[in-house]
């Protein structure tokens, strides 16, 4: 998770991501390296951005869907990790249960990158931070407001904001707040650096007022098997990013969504297609941020 990073690590990753965006095919960082890409759930941006990142950095990507390997089924995760470590230089894994990542890292001998779990989505947030930096030319002191479900994206967003001195507001219905472990970690990071803040609220207007960035994600994630759609449609509409909610923010506020979006639910067509939306910049930046993560990992190893 992003808790594994220090502030300077995060800043360096964003700096490197900017370089890779400006110099897209200028590095052979992964030359002669093989990267396993494990996907337990479907993906568009994560899969494509990681695959292209590996190849543009001169490496070879090996795509492994759950139908092609026995991850935790006919073969233990421990054995899978040990075997893959004999073949590849790094494992990128998009998993349903965060514990799978922990076991891959514990028993394998190569780096493991979290490409999404039920608890966190760190690579997405690194791309988000790059996007905010591009549009706002700064990070410290910005009001970054998240609306909706306190899910894995939200968990990582509050850590990313804390690491970079942002004032993060999370507006959710009662009972849908972000994971308490990530909230505690964010507060510890804020105390450590003496900058930034984290505010949890059930009032979407409070979150939107004078915000620099408005962020949302789906109300029901792929891993949410226990959520009742009828209940969600009753309690979540006040947290929809629409023209009214956007009107409370600063005039130059930007709107973000990690995609895929359920248009008409967590965000309206008018907003996501509007002039303040930066969702496609955000999607593109996954590629550049992923490359920067590889640089961080392999530079550390060397």
Describe the structure in your own words:
The chain is α/β, with parallel strands linked by helices and 302 residues long. Helix content is 44%, strand content 15%. It is built from twelve helices and nine strands. The strands form two sheets. The chain has a five-stranded parallel beta sheet with strand order 7-6-5-8-9. Helix 1 (7-22) crosses helix 5 (122-136). It is globular, with a radius of gyration of 19 Å. The model has no long low-confidence stretch (mean pLDDT 95).
SSE blueprint:
Elements: H1 7-22, E1 34-39, H2 45-56, E2 60-65, H3 77-87, E3 90-94, H4 98-107, E4 112-116, H5 122-136, E5 143-147, H6 152-163, E6 167-171, H7 180-193, E7 197-201, H8 204-208, E8 213-216, H9 229-235, H10 243-247, E9 254-257, H11 269-272, H12 279-301
Parallel strand pairs: 1-2, 1-3, 3-4, 5-6, 5-8, 6-7, 8-9
Helix pairs in contact: 1-5, 1-12, 2-12, 3-4, 5-6, 5-12, 6-7
State the secondary-structure class.
Answer: alpha/beta
Oligomer: single chain
- What's the gyration radius in Å? 19 Å
> Runs with pLDDT <50, length 5+?
none
Short description:
The chain is an alpha/beta fold.
Properties at a glance:
five-stranded parallel β-sheet; four-stranded parallel β-sheet; 12 helices
